[in-house]
Amino acid sequence: MEIIVADGLARTFRSGKTTVSAVQGVDLSVNRGEIVGFLGPNGAGKTTTLRMLTTLLRPTAGTARIAGADIVTQAAAVRQRIGYIAQAASASPKHRVYEEMHLQARLHRMEPTLARRRIEFLLTQLELADLGHRMACTLSGGQRRRLDVALGLVHEPAVIFLDEPTAGLDPQSRSNLWEHIRWLREEQEATVFLTTHYLEEADALCDRILVIDHGRIIAEDSSANLKQSVASTVVLVEVDGDAASGVVVLEGLTEVREVTAMDGKTLRMSVGEDDDDRVVLDAVTALRAAGLEVRSFSLTRPTLEDVFFNLTGRALRDGAGV
Question: Which is nearest to 96 in space by CA: 52, 66, 130, 67?
Answer without folding.
Answer: 130
